[in-house]
Amino acid sequence: MTEGIRLRPVTEPDLDTLDEMFADPAQVGEFNWSGFSDPSPWRRRYAENRLLADDKSVLMIEAESATVGFVSWYRLQTGQAAHVFQFGISLLPPARGRGLGTATQSLLARYLFAQSPVHRIQAVTEVENVVEQRSLEKAGFVREAVLKEHTWRDGAWRDEVLYRMLRSELPA
Ligand SMILES: CC(C)(COP(=O)(O)OP(=O)(O)OC[C@H]1O[C@@H](n2cnc3c(N)ncnc32)[C@H](O)[C@@H]1OP(=O)(O)O)[C@@H](O)C(=O)NCCC(=O)NCCS
């Protein structure tokens, strides 16, 4: 399912792609857009660590050698000695609806469990984002809870759905 797709580190030209995506709700996706934001933190973090750090990382998604979007994740501390990774994804509009979101989220799960001893990874998405919910489910994530009025976007508090994958739930 993940053939032809790869995750790769961000390069300097990708910073323009990321800026353009975050300046346009259609590009980044309406559910991932919460207004214009200062792009300089991306560039500062890129200069510091190429957007690859233990607590917060970004990788670009390539399908058949074309850049089609990005994934990001951060470390969410859940206890003194425990953390999970929470991730997000955005595909450019022409790449959506072809199974790439499912394949990428499968690949990311495999990558995170292989590259770190983390026990649980998770994603939240708005109740209205049925495409992402379906995509997560197809990638093997388990719908766990509805988080009432959990995020603010476009003039309203929005309910979100929490999806998880434990290390033991990674599909074979
Ligand atoms: C969300 C996203 C990553 C999903 O990736 P994708 O490649 O478009 O999705 P996939 O093709 O892998 O899977 C989508 C599934 O949703 C289904 N679907 C599409 N529209 C639907 C609808 N209106 N109602 C129900 N299901 C729908 C598709 O049929 C498909 O399921 P199927 O294979 O069983 O038929 C991608 O669309 C995207 O980047 N969107 C913009 C950003 C975003 O919303 N990110 C997530 C924010 S948390």
From TrEMBL:
It holds the Pfam family Acetyltransf_3. The keyword Transferase applies. Keywords: Transferase. The keyword Transferase applies. One of its GO terms (molecular function) is acyltransferase activity, transferring groups other than amino-acyl groups. InterPro entries: Acyl_CoA_acyltransferase (IPR016181), GNAT_dom (IPR000182), N-acetyltransferase (IPR051531). Residues 5-168 form the N-acetyltransferase domain. This is RimJ/RimL family protein N-acetyltransferase. The lineage of its organism: Bacteria, Bacillati, Actinomycetota, Actinomycetes, Pseudonocardiales.
